[in-house]
Design goal:
Elements: H1 7-13, E1 19-25, H2 43-49, E2 54-57, E3 60-61, H3 67-76, H4 112-118, E4 122-128, E5 141-143, E6 154-157, E7 160-163, E8 181-185, E9 232-234, E10 240-242, H5 251-269, E11 273-278, H6 290-293, H7 301-326, E12 333-339, E13 348-350, E14 353-357, H8 375-378, E15 379-380, E16 383-385, E17 394-396, E18 401-402, H9 406-413, H10 430-433, E19 446-450, E20 460-461, E21 464-465, H11 473-476, E22 492-497, E23 501-506, E24 516-521, H12 537-558
Parallel strand pairs: 1-11, 1-12, 2-17, 3-18, 4-8, 4-11
Antiparallel strand pairs: 2-16, 3-15, 5-7, 6-7, 8-9, 9-10, 12-16, 13-14, 19-22, 20-21, 22-23, 23-24
């Protein structure tokens, strides 16, 4: 449950209202930057993590082991299960189910931008949204060719080919969650020229080839372009337009340029700002510029694109910090970076490609990958810089933070409290960053659910696949309730308390199987190899009881008094 730090101290920590820059990478593994031993060249991230007013959190967590749910947790400060967002391509539900005549939210789940707007800020969202359709208009079409085949990312509608990646969900865009403007794609996009696969009527985009990197011969269209991921520009007057031009080879740099425009507007209007930047890299299809690929002459083309994409994320973060410094804004701006989940599994195709490639993403020895609630699926890069509070650089080894903590922290710095007293799952980080809190409060436990069966997507750490075991000490001892279920009937969960302990639960695939619970001390066993359930049985059972109490609060949030969202049927 929510633990809100005393707002009275936060107001005194900054003489003026702070600015906020919140960044997130896509499918970037915990071990995917050079300070953790990755081959990727990330000098800007390395320098930033060692800078005077920054902390590198070695236990920084995403809100979920997959994409859309984590994005929801950043916005809402709540576990995504509270808003019934369990999987990808689900929209952030309208508050009370209220929608306008166009199917969009009248009032969405209270978000970061709602909080800053109420305090007089301007705000911008840039990058991958993945929480609903952005516009869904039939004008996003071009005449179908004679052969009837639409470009990848489009669907056939009568005699036209129309944008197929925006429209199958209810309209739920950043405007509905308090943002003044946005330049965003509705779903995944290439880490290179994201919208180069799109049609710019009346002239097609693809009379010249796009940058497709190592995907050149992996599908029928890839020698020219990848799947269209159209950028839409949401303007402060609430109108939404297609971005009119191809966005350029370096997508991360394109997004930082949009951030730079927001900073200029902020200075012109003399208002503080909130900027949320969700990079497309290094989700598949990851494509780097020729310059970035050239940094890795001895790597495969696949590795060049992946590591080059990480280099571009690092450069983008460095440019963000340089812009703030040039504008004399560094001393009063919160800047943070994390990722939405662990690295993708090997040989994953999709997003317009038909051939999978080995994924170079690294977890630095953590167990599992994307889609698992083990450490490799949810532990991420976590760097925070905030000069008014952080007075000396350090590496935080044990204190855990999560994407759910962002909204409570922003609320604390703005001197605000939880919206309508609703439960938050994060806690303000100001007490810890200011040296007043050494251990995460027990009542601010971190909970995760996973919609996939543990290990079912061939997650591999080294050469050994980690699947949910068929038995456990917890089950043998009779500590697993026969009627146990999770919110949304999801087949795996995790629960962490304090600075050290984590419980993981999973249910194998198949009929006649049962749940198994495991207890780990992450300080001494970061790879989750030794189950402590039997050795610390009393503690484990008490911890499970607190997890169950937390689940009850999540179910309550889903009920008619708050969100009224539906609970999926059992699998």
């Amino acid at each position: 449950m929510q633990v809100m730090a005393s707002a009275m101290t936060a107001a005194a920590l900054a003489a003026t209202q702070p600015n906020f820059v919140i960044m997130m990478a896509d499918d970037m593994g915990y071990g995917d930057w050079s300070r953790t031993g990755s081959p990727a060249k990330t000098p800007e991230l390395d320098e930033w993590s060692r800078s005077e007013n920054a902390v590198w959190f070695k236990r920084a967590y995403s809100g979920n082991p997959i994409c859309s749910p984590t994005r929801a947790s950043v916005m809402s400060g709540r576990t995504p299960a509270r808003t019934c967002i369990y999987s990808v391509e689900q929209h952030m539900l309208c508050h009370g189910g209220t929608q306008d005549e166009h199917g969009g939210c009248i009032r969405g789940e209270y978000s970061l931008a709602n909080a800053t707007r109420e305090a007089g800020y301007i705000s911008g969202f840039y990058g991958k949204w993945h929480l609903g359709s952005l516009r869904n208009e039939t004008s996003d079409c071009y005449p179908a060719p004679q052969n009837g085949k639409c470009n990848s990312g489009y669907v056939s509608v009568g005699t036209s080919c129309c944008q197929g990646l925006d429209g199958h969900l209810p309209i739920s865009n950043p405007h509905h969650f308090g943002f003044d403007e946005f330049v965003a794609t509705p779903q995944c996009g290439a880490g290179g020229t994201t919208n180069c696969g799109c049609f710019f009527y009346p002239k097609p985009h693809n009379d010249t080839a796009c940058n497709v990197g190592h995907y050149f011969d992996s599908c029928s269209t890839c020698n020219m372009h990848l799947e269209c991921a159209q950028y839409f520009h949401g303007l402060p007057d609430m109108t939404i337009q297609q971005w009119p031009t191809v966005s350029g080879d370096d997508d991360e740099d394109f997004l930082v340029s949009r951030f730079s425009d927001l900073v200029d507007r902020s200075l012109s209007e003399k208002k503080p700002f909130l900027a949320v930047i969700f990079f497309h890299g290094v989700h598949i299809p990851y494509v780097a510029t020729a310059e970035s690929r050239a940094l890795y002459p001895n790597a495969t083309e696949n590795e060049q694109d992946y590591w080059g994409g990480l280099t571009q994320i690092s450069k983008a973060v460095g440019r963000v910090r340089s812009i703030l410094k040039e504008k004399n804004l560094s001393d009063n701006t919160w800047v943070s970076l994390t990722a939405d989940n662990g690295p993708e599994v090997d040989n994953m195709a999709g997003q317009g490609t038909s051939k999978g490639f080995p994924n170079p993403g690294r977890t630095d020895g953590l167990r599992g990958r994307k889609r698992d609630t083990s450490e490799g699926g949810i532990r991420e890069i976590g760097i925070v810089e905030y000069p008014p509070v952080i007075k000396a650089n350090r590496v935080e080894e044990t204190f855990p933070i999560a994407t759910m903590d962002l909204l409570p922290t922003v609320l604390d710095l703005l001197g605000k409290s939880s919206y309508e007293g609703r439960a938050l799952d994060g806690t303000s980080l100001i007490p810890h960053l200011s040296g007043k809190q050494d251990e995460r409060p027990q009542e601010a436990g971190l909970g995760w659910h996973g919609v996939f069966h543990f290990g079912s997507t061939n997650h591999v750490n080294g050469t050994f696949p980690y699947l949910c075991p068929n038995n456990s000490a917890s089950h043998t001892l009779g500590d697993v309730p026969d009627n146990f279920t999770t919110v949304g009937n999801q087949p795996q969960f995790a629960w962490a308390e304090g600075n050290h302990m984590k419980m993981l639960g999973c249910k194998p695939e198949g009929k006649g199987v049962h749940w198994n619970f495991f207890l780990y001390n992450l300080t001494s066993d970061r790879a989750e190899t030794t189950d402590l359930w039997e050795a610390q049985r009393d503690f484990a059972k008490a911890m499970f009881g607190r997890f169950e109490a937390w689940q009850q609060s999540v179910w309550a949030s889903q009920g008619p008094d708050e969100l009224g969202c539906n609970i999926p049927k059992e699998n």
